[in-house]
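Pilot study result, target chain (180 residues):
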Amino acid sequence: MPHASKEKEFQFDCKKLRLIVMDVDGVLTNGKLHYSNNNHGSREFDVKDGMGVKLLQSVGLEIAWISGGHGGFTEQRAVDLDVRHVFTKIKDKSTVLSSLQNQLDIDVSQTAYLGDDVNDLIVMPFVNLFFAPADAHPACLQQAHWVGLHDGGDGFVREIADHIISNFGVNPYQPFASLN
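Predicted structure:
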């Protein structure tokens, strides 16, 4: 697969997509973990990315998050955004993805994945499209079908969402009522 370029125009037919799967740390967050003296951690999520998730849901797409991390932050954000398919502490993301596709009766051609590091590349045989944020690991940048202009946790999900919903005839620049 040729190296994806930040300058490459988004030219994918996404109308057949039914499932958008995302890594969490480095895609929905900036990948940084903050710890305090009493071992309480934190993660930062971008509200623009949250709106991107809501927009994807508004066109009928299933959203799933598969993360190697844990700590409760991912699960709470998923509740806030009504993301029903959330998997944490996952070592082999392809196994979970394949199982979810079977459960939802969704095939490879109907699945896109947003990932930023080498542990995400294992899903490549199970997805039609793989998108990476601008600050992804070089291996992801090389193998992605498209590389965003935004970094993970800083509007990347919203950027992808705008492209995808445009394929469904929705103008991402028009007002949208949301519950979050």
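One observation from the pilot: The domain at 19-132+146-167 is CATH 3.40.50.1000 (Rossmann fold). A full batch analysis is planned for the follow-on phase.
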